[in-house]
């Protein structure tokens, strides 16, 4: 009885975090279990060894083969989120189908890519094995695909998870995929979440050393979305959004992703590639607020650079503030982000220019 209030508090904290992130039950459980033996501090012969915090190694160089790990979540005895009806599939099967479609689109359209699969059938692979595989292969990118679940059945939409907003390549890849979900795929997007937002880390994001994203393609706890994700049409839309987001990101990095030539599709891709590479512009978001903040605020003035207000209708944090203008060069945008962080906005991060987002969704 003595322990009841404490465990109750823990339970409340767990459900709060879960509600905020929308992360599926099994995923949280699996992550917690997997993380437990690997606490950041361990004692070795009376010396405390601190595991270094995750670093993001961007290994890509021009002309190099781009090595991508595709990671469909769960598998084997771990079904992930369970289906609500026997005519539907469990999370493990849906994400395997979507991942295989992503692989198909990559293989059909892109030349210098090497794909590594954590699983291609219904078998169990531990989270550690997934991260180890990516790290030992020195992969350039890690893309994990999951379905979400929430105790609130009306919650729907996509989420893209990264480890930290400070990892600019993970963030840029996440934004590029999220952009495709919002625009051409026309999915409700719940945005991009990092460890702070969801209040827990995700094993495969924390322990992989390359830019990595974990995509929640939708909520199986939402009747409509479950039906959508079980259908071939829904799977193709989601998979092609992931493929296009990845492709646009690779084009924007300028590392020289090559398109397969000859086919009509390839020609269309090339035209789109040009349009997309011209399209991506970045801003440095310094803060978001439910209420309007005057642009003459002392903290803004301290930056000694232009601050802009952007209104996101219908979102809780309706007012977003960016500093330094709009950049088509991610390196320049990153420099400004670092400067802004030192000048009193430590949580500043890059976003795709909201004006461009508005134009893209009108198309
Ligand atoms: Zn999952």
In short:
With 363 residues, the protein is an alpha/beta fold. It has 13 helices and twelve strands. The protein has a six-stranded mixed beta sheet with strand order 4-3-5-8-6-7.
Indicate the topology.
Elements: H1 4-21, H2 25-35, E1 41-44, E2 47-50, E3 66-72, H3 91-109, E4 113-117, H4 127-136, E5 141-148, E6 158-161, H5 168-182, E7 189-193, H6 195-198, H7 203-206, E8 212-219, H8 223-230, H9 232-253, H10 264-279, E9 282-289, H11 298-302, E10 307-311, E11 319-327, H12 330-342, E12 349-352, H13 354-362
Parallel strand pairs: 3-4, 3-5, 5-8, 6-7
Antiparallel strand pairs: 1-2, 6-8, 9-11, 9-12, 10-11
Helix pairs in contact: 3-9, 5-9
The chain binds zinc ion.
Characteristic key phrases:
363 residues; Aminopeptidase; 2 domains; 6-stranded mixed beta sheet; 12 strands; globular; disordered N terminus
Could you characterize what this model shows?
By secondary structure, this protein is α/β, with parallel strands linked by helices. The chain has two domains: 66-277, 3-Layer(aba) Sandwich (Aminopeptidase); 281-362, Alpha-Beta Plaits, CATH 3.30.70. Helix content is 42%, strand content 20%. It has helices at residues 4-21, 25-35, 91-109, 127-136, 168-182, 195-198, 203-206, 223-230, 232-253, 264-279, 298-302, 330-342, 354-362, and strands spanning 41-44, 47-50, 66-72, 113-117, 141-148, 158-161, 189-193, 212-219, 282-289, 307-311, 319-327, 349-352. Helix 3 (91-109) links the parallel strand 3 (66-72) and strand 4 (113-117). The radius of gyration is 21 Å and the shape is globular. Mean pLDDT is 81; it is low at 1-21 and 24-52. It binds zinc ion. Residues 24, 26-27, 73-74, 80, 91, 146 line the site of zinc ion (ZN).
């Amino acid at each position: 009885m003595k322990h009841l209030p404490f465990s109750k508090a823990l339970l409340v904290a767990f459900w709060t975090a879960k509600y905020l992130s929308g992360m599926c039950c099994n995923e949280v459980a699996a992550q917690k279990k997997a993380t437990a033996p690997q606490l950041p501090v361990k004692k070795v012969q009376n010396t405390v060894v601190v595991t270094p915090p995750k670093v993001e190694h961007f290994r890509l160089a021009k002309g190099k083969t781009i090595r991508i790990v595709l990671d469909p979540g769960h598998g084997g005895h771990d079904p992930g989120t369970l289906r609500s009806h026997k005519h539907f599939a469990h999370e493990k099967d849906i994400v395997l189908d979507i991942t295989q479609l992503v692989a198909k689109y990559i293989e059909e359209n892109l030349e210098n890519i090497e794909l590594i699969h954590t699983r291609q059938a219904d078998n169990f692979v531990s989270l550690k094995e997934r991260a180890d595989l990516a790290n030992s292969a020195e992969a350039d990118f890690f893309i994990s695909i999951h379905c979400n679940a929430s105790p609130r059945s009306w919650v729907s939409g996509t989420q893209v998870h990264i480890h930290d907003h400070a990892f600019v390549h993970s963030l840029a890849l996440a934004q590029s995929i999220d952009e495709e979900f919002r625009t051409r795929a026309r999915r409700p997007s719940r945005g991009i979440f990092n460890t702070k937002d969801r209040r827990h880390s995700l094993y495969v994001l924390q322990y992989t050393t390359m830019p990595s994203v974990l995509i929640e393609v939708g909520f199986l706890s939402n009747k409509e979305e479950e039906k959508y994700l079980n259908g071939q049409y829904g799977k193709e839309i989601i998979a092609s959004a992931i493929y296009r987001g990845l492709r646009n990101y690779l084009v924007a990095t300028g590392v020289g992703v090559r398109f397969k030539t000859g086919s009509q599709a390839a020609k269309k891709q090339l035209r789109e590639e040009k349009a997309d590479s011209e399209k991506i512009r970045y801003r440095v978001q310094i803060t978001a607020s439910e209420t309007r903040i005057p642009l003459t605020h002392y903290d803004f003035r301290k930056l000694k650079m232009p601050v802009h207000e952007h209104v996101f209708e219908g979102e809780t944090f309706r007012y977003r503030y960016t500093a330094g203008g709009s950049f088509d060069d991610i390196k320049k945008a990153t420099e400004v982000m670092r400067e802004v962080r030192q000048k009193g906005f430590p949580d500043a991060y890059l976003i795709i220019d909201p004006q461009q987002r508005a134009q893209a969704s009108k198309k």
